[in-house]
């Protein structure tokens, strides 16, 4: 857990100038969907946030939100919380939410670890960390979102049997994910053969980052189960 819910965020929060329609969505739709972190030591009341949702799923760093909104469309009885501090991505996600009319998405536009610290134990049935910023230089590895402490914190939040999905196309983040997540004692890696991590599962649509193939390598899809 990050101490005192302090923000330690790397990367940009704002990119190119937003269009008027995007600004309007940030002014009108975002306030209705924002999750507010309560003061410590209180935890978020997820029943109040989502009403009768069957399960709660979390996506960390949703980018432009295509995957988040796709999952919300496919699973109308699940409540999805998406975390993304990059405001241009949040604006794009709001456009997807408006276009599709999904009502089961809530957003947190800051460091996901601040939200995670405020979630109750065993509250999540699924978590997605898809193409986290690769930080390929060795001296920047400490900035990677997948770290022992975030995995420990997710283990606190995930129900037994809950699924953690990780993806990367960065050749140095793959062994890092294996060394940190796949061998973590709280999780079982669900792969029995190479196709289990090389081939895209049917219910896992490509993300915007993945489609741009920034690192130029084939992505891997890691599925872990909380013990
Ligand atoms: C490489 S992008 C991938 C975005 C998206 N998952 C995709 O595949 O298209 C990584 C994203 O993680 C976000 N991010 C970085 N650190 C974060 C943090 N601590 N909490 C939440 N999001 C974070 C960044 O703003 C960025 O949008």
Describe this structure in words.
The chain is an alpha/beta fold and 227 residues long. It is 33% helix and 19% strand. The protein is built from 10 helices and 7 strands. The protein has helices at residues 20-28, 30-33, 46-50, 66-74, 87-100, 112-117, 148-157, 173-182, 195-198, 208-212, and strands spanning 55-60, 78-83, 105-108, 124-130, 158-168, 187-189, 220-226. The protein has a 7-stranded mixed sheet with strand order 3-2-1-4-5-7-6, with helices on both faces. Helix 1 packs across helix 5 (87-100) and helix 4 runs parallel beside helix 5 (87-100). The site of S-adenosylmethionine (SAM) has 23 residues, from helix 6 and helix 10. S-adenosylmethionine binds at residues 9, 11, 60-63, 83-86, 89, 111-113, 130-133, 145, 207-210.
The H/E string reads HHHEHEHEHEHEHEHHE
The strands making up the biggest β-sheet line up spatially as 3-2-1-4-5-7-6
Bound molecules: S-adenosylmethionine
Return the average pLDDT rounded to an integer.
94
Biggest beta sheet attributes: 7 strands, mixed
Q: Which descriptor suits the 3D outline?
A: globular
| Helix/strand/pairing category | alpha/beta
The fraction of residues in strands falls at 15-25%
Q: What's the total helix number?
A: 10
Distance between the termini: 20 Å
Poorly predicted residue ranges: none
Helix content: 25-40%
């Amino acid at each position: 857990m990050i101490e005192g819910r302090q923000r330690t965020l790397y990367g940009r929060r704002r990119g190119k100038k937003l269009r008027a329609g995007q600004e309007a969505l940030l002014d009108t739709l975002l306030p209705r969907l924002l999750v507010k972190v309560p003061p410590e030591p209180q935890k978020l009341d997820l029943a109040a946030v989502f009403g009768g949702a069957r399960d709660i799923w979390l996506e960390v760093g949703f980018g432009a939100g295509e995957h988040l909104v796709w999952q919300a469309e496919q699973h109308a009885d699940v409540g999805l919380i998406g975390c993304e501090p990059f405001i241009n991505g949040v604006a794009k996600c709001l456009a997807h939410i408006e276009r599709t009319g999904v009502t089961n998405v809530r957003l947190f536009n800051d460091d996901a670890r601040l939200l995670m610290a405020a979630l109750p134990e065993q509250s999540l049935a699924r978590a997605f960390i898809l193409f986290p910023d690769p930080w390929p230089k060795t001296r920047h590895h400490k900035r990677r979102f997948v770290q022992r402490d975030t995995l420990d914190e997710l283990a606190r939040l995930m129900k037994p049997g809950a699924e953690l999905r990780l993806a990367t196309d960065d050749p140095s983040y793959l062994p890092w994910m294996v060394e940190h997540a796949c061998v973590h004692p709280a999780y079982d890696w669900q792969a029995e053969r190479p196709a289990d991590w090389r081939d895209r599962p049917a219910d896992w649509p490509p993300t915007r980052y993945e489609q741009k193939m920034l690192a130029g390598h084939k992505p891997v899809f890691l599925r872990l189960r909380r013990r």
